[in-house]
Design goal:
The structure is a single chain. With 370 residues, the chain is an alpha+beta fold. The protein folds into three domains: 4-118, Beta-Lactamase (2-Layer Sandwich), CATH 3.30.450; 124-210, Orthogonal Bundle (Helix Hairpins); 218-363, Heat Shock Protein 90, CATH 3.30.565.10. Helix content is 45%, strand content 21%. It has ten helices and twelve strands. A five-stranded antiparallel sheet has the order 2-1-5-4-3. The radius of gyration is 28 Å and the shape is elongated.
């Protein structure tokens, strides 16, 4: 009959989650078989190494500082809480993971156990459900667009038709030489102007209705917003073997933003980059944040995809313009609206990776001194 140690070893080796144990110096003490499959390393490659070998360079550069702060202060920011973060395989590709950490203390040391779940390894049924949900959302958006288009056409068509009629009358009056027609022509022009202003008022009302949601602003660590948005964007996507580089500002800048809306912008740009690189041999993405010389915060998403033609680039942020087969052409337009509502701007450039680079700014509140 197996003893307790054998039972525990069996559970450890057959766990669906990767299990990695490190000491207080972040040195790997244990690395189970699931972890070997997940990260592409054998246990012998990792044992005795710093846990940073499983992280993208940006996170690796900060990890020792996080460990040191926790050992000094005891303040928990992830232990016992869990977070969606980014891992890095042996081949350098990055992928989203759900990380939970437990702590164990002995008389002379501390051990930290990480339970890691690969969020890209969704079951086929779950992936199909996700795709069906996307299709339903897409259909709902198209239905909404149809209703909005009908409403706009109805509200705008009448004043436009009326203004056309007034202008036609004015032209005929000005071309005639009968006494008093000049004054009548001017009156017709005034009436046409009033109808055109009515169109403008209608458009403004629709825009105000679309923007009626108030922003829920709070001070946010923008680097963390980017990290979380990237990890979430990769969940359920068809991203595979994409090498993601994080080039985030060491100042860890703070901005007053609606976190959900800014994450929506980053997620949209990341998913666009993933879609653009699908089927391409080179799949590299860079996420970066920096503080500009005029004290603005600039966030960028760069990819190595095919890029955008010069003609298309001029219309990228125009509603209903899309390069995707099943796209609505609203994603980038909504992103620009969100960014501008925060006092920033969003634009497109050619990427240094050979593909597309989307960049946007936010007003900087302060660097994060924590």
């Amino acid at each position: 009959m197996p003893n307790e140690d054998q039972i525990l070893q069996t559970v450890y080796d057959t766990s669906a989650d990767a299990i990695v144990v490190i000491d207080e110096n972040a040195i790997v003490q244990s690395f189970n078989r699931t972890a070997e499959k997940m990260f592409g390393f054998s246990a012998s490659d990792v044992l005795g190494q710093n846990i940073k070998v499983l992280m993208p360079p940006y996170f690796a550069a900060h990890h020792d500082g996080y460990m040191e702060r926790y050992m000094k202060t005891g303040e928990r920011r992830i232990i016992g809480i869990g977070r969606i973060v980014t891992g890095q395989r042996k081949d350098g590709s990055t992928f989203p993971i759900e990380l939970s950490i437990g702590e164990a203390k002995t008389s002379n040391r501390r051990l930290f156990t990480g339970f890691i779940r690969d969020l890209t390894d969704k079951q086929r049924v779950e992936q199909r459900v996700h795709e069906l949900q996307e299709e339903l959302i897409h259909a709902a958006r198209l239905a909404s667009l149809g209703e909005i288009t009908s409403m706009v056409a109805h509200e705008v068509n009448q004043p436009l038709s009326a203004s056309g009629t007034y202008l036609e009358v004015a032209r005929e009056l000005f071309n005639s030489h009968e006494e008093g027609n000049h004054a009548k022509g001017l009156k017709a022009l005034d009436q046409a102007e009033a109808q055109i202003k009515r169109v403008g008022d209608t458009v403004r009302r629709i825009r105000e209705f679309a923007r009626k949601k108030t922003l829920e602003l709070a001070l946010e660590d923008i680097n963390r917003v980017i990290e979380e948005a990237n990890a979430i964007a990769a969940v359920g996507s068809k991203a595979r073997n994409i090498r993601t580089t994080f080039n985030l500002s060491p100042l860890r800048p703070i901005a007053m933003v609606d976190r959900i809306q800014i994450q929506q912008v980053v997620m949209n740009l990341v998913r666009n980059a993933i879609d653009a690189m699908t089927g391409h041999e080179r799949r590299e993405m860079v996420l970066q944040s920096l503080v500009t010389i005029d004290s603005q915060l600039e966030i960028s998403v760069l990819d190595s995809g095919p890029g955008v033609s010069e003609e298309t680039a001029k219309k990228l942020f125009t509603p209903f313009v899309t390069t995707k087969k099943d796209g609505t052409g609203l994603g980038l337009a909504i992103c620009r609206t969100i960014v501008e509502a925060h006092g920033g701007k969003l634009w497109y450039e050619n990427s240094s990776l050979g593909g597309a680079a989307f960049k946007f700014t936010l007003p900087l509140v302060a660097p994060n001194n924590d």
